[in-house]
Design goal:
The chain is α/β, with parallel strands linked by helices and 179 residues long. The protein has six helices and eight strands; from the N terminus they run H-E-H-E-H-E-H-E-H-E-E-E-H-E. The protein has two domains: 81 residues, no CATH class; 76 residues, no CATH class.
Length: 179
């Protein structure tokens, strides 16, 4: 089974009506434990890394460790760089070996976010990289709470421009509790 794309895991889960854990990892130990838990339960898992933690461990190291452990796993394991706050960070994630990245353009005006994400998706797909986009604004405690983008609240738009229209493999829509 081993290393698979995020959308492969999610499509299978959707078809068979089950949820998949996307576990934020920070180091070798958390990656190892997440994979071991998935193997013990015989379930797929998504290993995620938040790029803001790169001051503690470079993205390249975490991507290399996670991809290596995923390849050796006995269950499907996907590796994902979550919430890249800029296109440069997402590009760095691709350069450093992440097979999946999130482009979080939610700080941009909506139309610019959609256009730039679509452009990034084209670039990434040419390299076999899975992309998750983020439309709108997620209200999070201590971050972006109540902020407006482009004069519109993040909860007033987004659902009609789903990922398939723009080519993204996944979309985080306003009101989604992920993060």
């Amino acid at each position: 089974m081993s290393l698979v794309k995020v959308n492969e895991i999610l499509q299978h889960a959707w078809k068979h009506k089950y949820g998949v854990a996307a576990i934020n990892t920070l180091n070798y130990e958390t990656i190892k434990c997440a994979v071991a838990a998935a193997e013990a339960e015989r379930v797929p898992v998504i290993l995620q890394f938040f790029p803001g933690l790169d001051k503690y461990i470079p993205l390249k190291y975490i991507a290399d460790m996670a991809v290596d452990m995923a390849r050796k796993a006995s269950v499907p394991v996907a590796v994902h760089l979550d919430h890249s706050a800029s296109y440069e960070i997402a590009l760095g994630g691709i350069r450093d070996g992440f097979p999946s990245v999130m482009v979080d353009g939610s700080a941009l005006p909506f139309e610019e976010n959609v256009a730039r994400t679509a452009e990034f998706v084209k670039f990434a797909h040419e390299r076999g990289i899975t992309v998750e986009g983020e439309l709108g604004i997620m209200a999070r405690q201590g971050r972006r709470k109540g902020r407006r983008s482009g004069g519109r609240s993040g909860y007033q738009y987004g659902s009609c421009t789903g990922g398939r229209v723009r080519g993204a493999d996944g979309m985080r829509l306003p009101g989604d509790c992920g993060g």
